[in-house]
Amino acid sequence: MRATRNCNHQCPADIAPPPHSSLSVNAALHEAGATSEDVIKTQVPVVSTQQSDLVADWEVVRDAFGAHGLPSTLVEVTVLGYAHRLVEVEAIAAVAD
């Protein structure tokens, strides 16, 4: 699933990892014994000054995590750590031992 915004932007939640990364959020969750249903909160920094970009990127992330309606913070930022990355997704999950 790709965000609808310009360039070769990918939303990294499996959803689709960025080209330089082999790790997606769903893969990381799986390695920890969790699924997207175990995610209790997300934070999504987005490089943009346009509200329409923020909304479009949020809709991709929201849809990827399903219908369980988790709390999330969408944050406008000026730059992320890797060139050409426009969105990151931080997901916090809780699983029982």
Q: How would you characterize this protein structure?
A:
The chain is an alpha+beta fold. It has one domain (25-93): RutC-like (60s Ribosomal Protein L30, Chain: A, 2-Layer Sandwich), CATH 3.30.1330. The chain is built from 2 helices and 3 strands. A 3-stranded mixed sheet has the order 2-1-3, with helices on one face. It starts with 24 loop residues before the first helix and ends with a strand. 28% of the residues are buried.
The span between the termini is 32 Å
CATH class: Alpha Beta
Whole-number total of structural domains: 1
Strand content: 15-25%
Secondary structure: helix percent: 10-25%
Give a nutshell description of this structure.
22% of the residues lie in helices and 20% in strands. It is of the alpha+beta class and 97 residues long.
List the helices and strands and how they pair.
Elements: H1 25-31, E1 39-47, H2 51-64, E2 72-77, E3 90-93
Parallel strand pairs: 1-2
Antiparallel strand pairs: 1-3
Features:
97 residues; 60s Ribosomal Protein L30, Chain: A; three-stranded mixed beta sheet; 22% helix; globular
